[in-house]
Amino acid sequence: MIEDAEKDGERRGGSPQSVTRVIRLLEALCVSSEPVSLADLSRRLKTPKSSLAALLRGLADEDLVVAADGVWRLGPGAFGLGSALTEARRRLQSSDLVRDGMRRLAARSGETVLLAVGDHDGDMVTYVDLVESRNVVRYSVSIGDRRPLYATAAGRVLLSMCSPSAVDAYLKRVTLTRLAPGTEIDPAALALAVEQARAKGCAQTVDQAAEGVTGTACVVRDAAGGVVGALVAAAPSARAAGRLEELVRLVRDEAAAISRSLGFR
């Protein structure tokens, strides 16, 4: 029955289970500082030993893994493949990977998508790239525009990457002014909003930096775990009102996909 299900998955265009297992198997060996036994791999991957043994034999034939004394480690073929992938990634610039993800999010959400980064002084975000919505009514911003951290979804999610003490220091240092009638300027409420963004891995603002604009933002990370910036879907609040959770899901999924393409695991 399992075999039939896998064949059905291939016919539907989904990832064959064996391919997924190979990827998870190589990832498990990559993150382990010591060779790993078949039993341990089976436990980590929640996969029968018989299935893993067959995959390991195939990988060993290509020198991707090596067996020694009943344990497994990466083989020379894996490092050669890793070098080739690193070179390919160098040729395909990270900015291209980010922009590809921005285009996907714009197509899926129907909204303007932005990439925002924090300024060196730590008080503002700058929009460094955008893909505009094709809707006639859409949010528009210019590359290079800057906004206060506290009033934007991008700024709040970037603040959530900082320690609580750093967030408190920022809120004491910055002058909190209303950019729209509904802009939150109470330090305690803003600290709570940042904490909620930290817990959810996403920030969402409604009518904060500008009246009539809803922003949804998640962080994009690179291979080293560093913050590349905040991926933002910006929408007219009237259109976003009935799809706030959908926007969170779309932005979160695409931020994760971009981060994976940059090597973050």
From TrEMBL:
Keyword Transcription regulation: yes
Protein name: Transcriptional regulator
Domain (HTH iclR-type): residue spans on this chain: 16-76
Taxonomy of the source species: Bacteria, Pseudomonadati, Pseudomonadota, Alphaproteobacteria, Sphingomonadales
Annotated keywords: DNA-binding, Transcription, Transcription regulation
InterPro entries in alphabetical order: GAF-like_dom_sf, HTH_MetabolicPath_Reg, Tscrpt_reg_IclR_C, Tscrpt_reg_IclR_N, WH-like_DNA-bd_sf, WH_DNA-bd_sf
Pfam families (UniProt xref): HTH_IclR (PF09339), IclR_C (PF01614)
Signal peptide: none
